[in-house]
């Protein structure tokens, strides 16, 4: 990955304005874009129902950037009729190329140590999740390794993942703790998130997921562990300002609806915003619970029932679908995306990157969403950008290419958005611009 320093500010004068006060400082322009997908707000924020498919792309488009903000979006000839480029302005010609907002990956688990690559052969041999756990694998293997790892190791691991995510076009992610499962190691995990956000060009939003699994020392005593989360972990996380969201893995045999509600209500009292993993394996009425708690987003939703979906629509909760997970678990069923769209619930997409389902690529997730959940390429792109920004409540700053928003965008070496799922499994990125800087350059 090529990481470049911030270009020094250059100035472009408006042709019709000589007044020094009204000179706009422009640093970078992208011109002659074959297909410019802006995801602008005219189709709603977030986009729902039919509006998820309304791309209205601009042909021969242009984007102009000043500092870390977008100052012009439109046709190339409009840009040149409004501004006269200075010879020092960086100009990128995007003939035959696609430009979109940077991907937002709103649900990941990148803070861990150790690998579980050997488990695929076990899964293929027909071993169940429980059998893998009993042979020392599964989530508890990751918990063991993560507890042993130093803060520095977790940061190093995270950086590798963030670099690759950025190479594949992602410019903002959310990530969670959840492989520490005790006070010390959950805090260590969140400190790693904080450090990654400071050190890496990626914007990294933090979620506390102490309720990811029941740690081995609390086996058979889930209520006691819930008490530890509520009485010690949440107050400490809030006091040290280590997370913006709180998440719970609500699933049969893990955390019940009652326990989930207890944890999230406690978290909300401390100012953490709620989100939930729901209805992945069994329908536990998770969608209804998400609506009741006004959760910002929910993950999975393979089994959510109609009553829950109706309630989620009313609560304006975003459905973040994670097709990488059923793919890696070799499940036949995926989340019923078409039905969720028909209900008018906005869909976001995320990688769910974790040691059991490891991909940094939102391009792969877009392909899986199209081939397995029957989203159109346009709907999948909407779900990976503006709707994903809404899933993190960051839509005012990111997720679309509009004047005043952060200059986070991707230049793809393909002519249009249909290529994103069509030419799958490879990286179609040509350049990634983050905060106005070219941070990835494959040209
Ligand atoms: Zn997850």
Structure report:
With 443 residues, this protein is of the alpha/beta class. The chain has two domains: 13-101 and 401-441, Roll (Urease, subunit C, domain 1); 104-391, Metal-dependent hydrolases (TIM Barrel), CATH 3.20.20.140. The chain is built from 16 helices and 19 strands. The chain has helices at residues 76-82, 119-124, 129-134, 138-148, 151-167, 183-199, 222-239, 257-269, 286-292, 306-315, 324-328, 337-342, 362-373, 377-384, 386-391, 419-422, and strands spanning 13-14, 28-33, 35-36, 61-66, 69-75, 83-84, 90-93, 98-101, 103-105, 170-176, 203-211, 245-249, 273-278, 297-300, 318-321, 347-349, 409-412, 429-434, 437-441. The chain has an eight-stranded parallel sheet with strand order 9-10-11-12-13-14-15-16. Helix 7 (222-239) links the parallel strand 11 and strand 12 (245-249). The chain binds zinc ion. Residues 107, 109, 277, 299, 352 line the site of zinc ion.
Short précis:
By secondary structure, the protein is an alpha/beta fold.
Which features does this protein show?
alpha/beta, 5-stranded mixed β-sheet, Urease, subunit C, domain 1, 2 domains, single chain, 443 residues, binds zinc ion, 8-stranded parallel β-sheet, globular, TIM Barrel, 16 helices
